[in-house]
Amino acid sequence: GYHCEPYNNPADFFLDVINGDSSAVLLNREDPEGEARETEEPSQRDLSLLEKLAEFYGNSTFFRETKAELDQLSGAQKSKKSIAFKEITYVSSFFHQLKWISKRSFKNLLGNPQASIAQIIITAILGLVIGAIFYDLKMDSAGIQNRAGVLFFLTTNQCFSSVSAVELFVVEKKLFIHEYISGYYRVSSYFLGKLLSDLLPMRMLPSIIFTCITYFLLGLKPKVEAFFIMMFTLMMVAYSASSMALAIAAGQSVVSIATLLMTICFVFMMIFSGLLVNLRTVVAWLSWLQYFSIPRYGYAALQHNEFLGQNFCPGLNVTANDTCSYATCTGEEFLENQGIDLSPWGLWRNHVALACMIVIFLTIAYLKLLFLKKYS
User: Fold this and answer.
1) How many structural domains does the chain have?
2) 89 in a domain, yes or no?
3) Is the pLDDT of residue 149 over 80?
4) What is its main location (predicted)?
5) Which of 67, 178, 286, 323 sits 20 to 30 Å CA-CA off 13?
């Protein structure tokens, strides 16, 4: 029943009516003789005005139609549990999202020297230190022990250096949830982009540097294929350990908890790696644990690659079936004592096992991100 002047903004007019400041309200307050009711308190006037407007709206057909529509929507939403509001659509393709996620992750990697350049420098320094300690391994019984020790160290070092991979998804968890529910990208494009731009280079480059430095300082088997097999083995160990770190850390909110779980797992894996205990002497009801040990596969592959065809008894004619009573003379004897198959499959089955573990752990990490409670 209030009249809005032609020059007045309707939105301002509505607010003025509600606040009781409109000229139309003042006109409505006057009595038929044109005298204003000054005896009424302002607060009571405003209250009566609001009650009048509320009562007028409550008795209107517009209120009844709106209420019926809202009740219908509310009932449908309760039955569907807000599925319609949580459905995420994407306007860009998978490869477009993959491109920009990889580009952003790679720029972040280069812009954080503490996690990239520092790790490479530390790897190079550690390689020089190991090369100085085990410099120029001899072909004798002491050389067998030193070779076994340094190969074990190389394997376990790859495992423990991969613990830093737990930060890959933990640090950006809130950012990932925000961008995912906003429809920026798919889980698959985010997951693959982080692997291509962050995980792969940060595990591959240190393995290459470590192998190039230590291999020649240690004086390992002088064969080209042995050099590249060692490099490939260290890379596979680093990838499998990093994949395990991602599987444990995906969905976690605290880095320290994921790091603690990783360290405990690697400590138990070290026991079944083949150096601390001869795996053939482990009781049957515990021996199955060796098949879940990442260092075991890497250590066995490195031993097969290094010891096969080596002679550690100078002056002994191993082709004449001579025997050495005081020590292990050939690499084959050492491998047999460790229970390692001497055939080519005895080498490559370790890499196949590591590849299977990589696929399994990455699948677990992806599923944990996919089913993460992003709307809590």
Assistant:
1) 2
2) no
3) yes
4) membrane
5) 67
- The answer to whether position 376 is within a domain reads no
CA distance 171 to 225: 40
Identity of residue 174:
K
Residues 98 and 18 in one domain: no
**266/298 Cα distance (integer angstroms):** 13
Which residue is listed with tokens 């150096």? 275
183-232 pLDDT per residue, tens = 888 899 999 998 888 778 888 888 899 899 999 898 888 889 999 999 99
Residue labelled with tokens 């590249």:
228
Contacts of 31 (CB under 8 A, 6+ apart): 37
Q: 104 and 13, same structural domain?
A: no
User: 330 forms bridges with which residues in the sheet?
Assistant: 311
Instruction: Report the distance separating Cα 136 and Cα 219, nearest Å.
Output: 5
Q: Is 209 in the same domain as 336?
A: yes
Is 121 within a domain? yes
- Reported pTM: 0.72
Percentage helix, strand, coil for the chain under 3-state DSSP, each rounded to 5: 70, 0, 25
Same domain for 43 and 120? Answer: no
Distances (CA, A) of 305 to 230, 233, 260, 299, 343: 7, 10, 33, 10, 11
Task: Give residue 115's domain range.
Answer: 94-314+326-371
Indicate if 129 and 187 belong to the same structural domain: yes
User: Two tokens at 328?
Assistant: 């292990």
Higher model confidence: residue 320 or residue 23?
Answer: 23
The pair phi, psi for residue 111, each rounded to 5°, is -85, 0
Does some domain include residue 302? yes
On the 0-12 / 13-18 / 19+ scale of CB atoms within 10 A, 374 is middle
Separation CA 20–CA 49 (nearest Å): 8
